[in-house]
Amino acid sequence: MADDVPTLDRLFAPGASTLRGDAQGLLVGHDAISRFRGGRGGAPQRRIVQTHVQVTDPDHALV
User: Strand 54-57 and strand 25-28: pairing?
Assistant: First the structure.
């Protein structure tokens, strides 16, 4: 995926309680996440090595 900020904005839930975390820290709120993405100039290429899924109820899961 390219660093398509408008598409990435749509993929994160709106609101002040949305979280985005990585090894560098935690961003709180959709606006803070969007500002971070807009200013970083792209992300390094990544490779998924593991996926964990925790079902929280019949309609939701944490991935």
Answer: unpaired
Number of CB atoms found within 10 A of residue 37's CB: 20
Please report, for the chain, how many H helices and E strands are present, in that order: 2, 4
pLDDT (tens digit per residue) in 4-45: 888 888 988 999 999 998 888 999 999 999 998 888 877 778
pTM to 2 decimal places: 0.63
Scanning the structure block, which residue is given the tokens 């109820």? 57
Structure tokens at 28: 């709180």
- The answer to whether the CB of 62 falls within 8 A of the CB of 54 is yes
Task: Count the Cβ atoms, other than its own, within 10 Å of residue 34.
Answer: 19
